[in-house]
Amino acid sequence: MNENKLVLMQGIYKSFENVHAVIDANFDLNQGEIHSVVGENGAGKSTLMKILYGIHKPDMGTIFVKNKMYHSLTPADAIKLNIGMVHQEFMLAKGVTVLENIILGNEPHKGQKINYSEAQRKISYYIDNYGLDIPLDKMTKDISIGEAQRTEIIKALYRGAQILILDEPTSVLTPQESEQLFKILEAMCKDGKSIVFISHKLNEVMQISNRITAMRQGKTLATVKTQDISIPELAKLMVGREVFLNIASSDHSSRSEVVLSVENIFVPGEKELSKIRNVSFAVYKGEILGVAGVDGNGQSELAEAIAGLRPVEKGKIVLNGVSIEKLPTLSRRKLGFAYIPEDRNSQGLNAGMTIKENLIGNVFYKPDFAKLGVLRENNIKLLAQKLVDRFDIRPPIIKANVSSLSGGNAQKVVIAREMNEDASLLLACQPTRGVDIGAIESIRKSILDAKRNGCSVLLISSDLEEILSLSDRILVMYEGKITGILDISEANEENLGLLMMGAPHV
Question: What CATH code would you report for 246-336+424-506?
């Protein structure tokens, strides 16, 4: 092994039943660098790093850490080797304080009692040296997402991590929190620590990385110095073709005809901070109104209230001149409403049915597709095949079960079904969450096509780049309220980020 390499992974294979997740993959890490791992959903990047951390055991291959060879590791081995990992889903106990979370299982003792002052002294080193500002005495359930992530990082450092693996670390952060995280990572690297940064946000990867490894279909395609590659080249390497994600929207809306009016609504929330409190706004004909905000600030509740899946305690929702706040979902659909839910698995698809059956889920009762209670199979097949071809659903086999599809193709089934009809309002919630970069391009084009065909779109997304790329106006939510509505000409990541943290629009 090269003595300059802290980590060297060679010829790594990992399968889960019949799925080959990692195929002959290679990876190395230098001391004091940030090495990003990029790839489409399912490319194998998280699996490869979970093998390094010991969560998965490789089927084949070798791992060198600090010049010592291993065929597999356990998480306990990884911690002893000073490897830490911060997962995309935070793993903090809610019913204890931040301090107690950090030291859990590694408590310093003075006699029979936990020595909290010694723990605070040790933790203060990381807070002071890396700017990891966190409230140690707060209950974990009461801290922000950014504070939760910093807690996870300190928890790993407290256990001695010199190598830190971060899986999609900015997916739930505001731009300001992301910038703060980057400063923390740079300070850690100057202190000799090494970072593995798993991300799908190519602009951030280019900003923060020293080197980048690109993966596709379980294989590592190339490792390059960041200065030697551009974002379009990196996207092409990941997907295998040119990709155009920044599809600029053009505002064809006169803002004279209101399609959806939300008037002073109050909606119960999953938690106190996500209650909808006296929210009002309008969506005009032919526009895309983006809704931005950190997850958990009422966006889901707002969408479910409009879709008829959550009760409205007070206020009105008017679609095409009709009050719909008390109408069932089917009645709303008959008024021109289409809905892409944020969770395709629990709300958007029936996993036990075929592509064909899912594609007719909102039209099967209509005369073209049913007569006297009997389905008109030929018409259904023609529609399903047309939609599969139009939206490039793969494999293009209408009898295939949707549970066999990749995330991107499963999402395309939802998109195809909802965009098939001439809806006047499309409510699109997290339409590209968890899908491949190639599918993201396709879905964004479909949303813009709907707008060009005269449909109004209410786009709820936690991806600010998506919101800025597609929207004509942007509404920002914080703790169940609207902190501002900006025209796209005045919106940028900085002022949106401030609104997402609760600062009022000036």
Answer: 3.40.50.300
